[in-house]
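Continuing the batch. This is chain 6 of the set; chains 1 through 5 are on the previous pages. Same settings as before, nothing changed between runs. Recording input and output for traceability.
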Amino acid sequence: MKGKVVEKLTGESIIGASVLELGSNSNWAITDLDGYYDSHFKLKSKIWKA
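Output for chain 6:
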């Protein structure tokens, strides 16, 4: 799973955000300097929360 996390009102990238798969304690990623993340995991669900 890949994606980008941005601030809702401004659209600016969020650096260092934790992105977690809901219902899992082991599937997570951290956003880079541009707000992008890549989980490198096989996903059980497609629902993620930042």
